[in-house]
Design goal:
The chain is α/β, with parallel strands linked by helices. The chain has twelve helices and 13 strands. Strands 3-2-1-4-8 form a five-stranded mixed β-sheet, sandwiched between helices. Strands 11-10-9-12-13 form a five-stranded mixed β-sheet, with helices on both faces. It has a three-stranded antiparallel β-sheet with strand order 5-7-6.
């Protein structure tokens, strides 16, 4: 009742512009928000520029220490995520086999999909389906689908250096696409496409029945949209950033003459995913698009995508299902989907605790 021996779960999202943190606990079996916060990373001014030039990992380490000092989390460990572009996921279809045989088959198949020597890669796998699929289903053969996840060990080591000397071990390290799917989709049945527009990168994550099936990472994001607004309207970056998530619609109103090339890149990749998935699962297989990241709040974006793809488009609410004190609820809801990865990491800790 007084918090003695209560479990705490801390998720740390290392974005390209911010480090974000969410701390949860459990009360009557339900997740409760204990703590949250963020720190903006500036590598362009004063000592930060010098430090970043000498060692980016050391600079990020210092920002993390400052954030944790402010939050004073009760958790004894943390959960972290690697960016989507630093890893690889692929779905492998194999004949039904015993687990012992499967382990050997995965080792053999991994060489085909991982473009690096296996000794340089940390990889894991999970069986997500054991029913016939695709062409094998038509022939009557029983198959299984295995999700292969890989990341370069040097990328893992880089993130480990972020927390050196912090005094908090890492309980969970995963690709951020899994954190994102956990916070946004949970175990919702059906297929949906999460479009997570970060400041410098965009993740497209196809989720079916709560399982990640496909991921695409694009090297473009919300910063390019802000630049288009700044240059097109002749205003400062800061003012353009305010307008991007303000009440004015720059996408669907006839008077808007701005062309957002970043959105063209994102929508082209969405169209490729829709086409590929429809060819395998049917034209109506993808039931919705869910927007995440800070740019998800851009006025008119849901309508813009609905008009293009003719499916419902919604904005993610990673806080749904989490108990939040009324005193901080307005501030938390204002953050909206931008904290989805941090929330998903904290929920990952909750899931692991429940399975113990």
């Amino acid at each position: 009742m007084f918090g003695i021996n209560k479990p705490y779960f801390l998720g740390i999202d290392f974005g390209t512009s911010y480090i974000k943190a969410v701390e949860l606990t459990l009360q009557k079996g339900l997740p409760v928000l204990v703590n949250y916060g963020y720190i903006e990373m500036s590598f362009t001014e004063g000592k930060n520029a010098v430090l970043a030039a000498q060692s980016p990992e050391k600079s990020i380490h210092e920002y993390l220490k400052a954030l944790l000092k402010t939050l004073s989390p009760k958790a004894k460990s943390m959960n972290m995520a690697l960016p989507g572009f630093s890893g690889l996921i692929t779905l492998i279809e194999l004949p039904m086999m015993e687990m012992r045989e499967l382990e050997q088959a995965i080792q053999f198949e991994a060489h085909k999909y991982i473009p690096a020597p296996l000794e340089d890669v940390a990889f894991s796998w999970e069986v997500i389906s054991q029913s016939g699929v695709g062409s094998e289903e038509k022939s009557g053969k029983k198959t299984m689908e295995v999700l292969l996840v890989a990341a370069l060990k040097k990328e893992v080591s880089k993130f480990e250096r972020y927390i050196e000397g912090i005094g908090m071990p890492v309980d969970l390290l995963e690709l951020e696409i899994f954190s994102l799917a956990r916070a946004v989709s949970g175990d919702t049945p059906g297929s949906s496409l999460i479009v997570d527009i970060g400041s410098r990168a965009t993740n497209l994550v196809l989720v079916r029945d709560g399982d990640v099936r496909l991921n695409r990472s694009l090297n473009t994001g919300g910063n390019e949209i802000t630049s288009t607004l700044s240059e097109g309207l002749g205003i400062t970056w800061e003012r353009a950033e305010e307008l991007k998530c303000g009440t004015k619609d720059f996408l669907t109103q006839p008077e808007s003459a701005l062309v957002f090339s970043t959105l063209d890149v994102i929508t082209s990749e969405i169209r490729r995913i829709f086409t590929m998935y429809a060819a395998k699962e049917g034209a109506d297989a993808l039931r919705e698009i869910v927007l995440s990241g800070g740019t998800a709040k851009m006025q008119g974006l849901p309508v813009y995508l609905t008009n293009l793809f003719h499916v419902p488009v919604s904005i993610a609410n990673p806080w749904q299902g989490i108990q939040i004190d009324d005193a901080i609820r307005p501030a938390v809801e204002k953050l909206g989907p931008s904290f989805a990865i941090a929330v998903g990491l904290a929920l990952g800790g909750v899931d692991r605790y429940r399975k113990k």
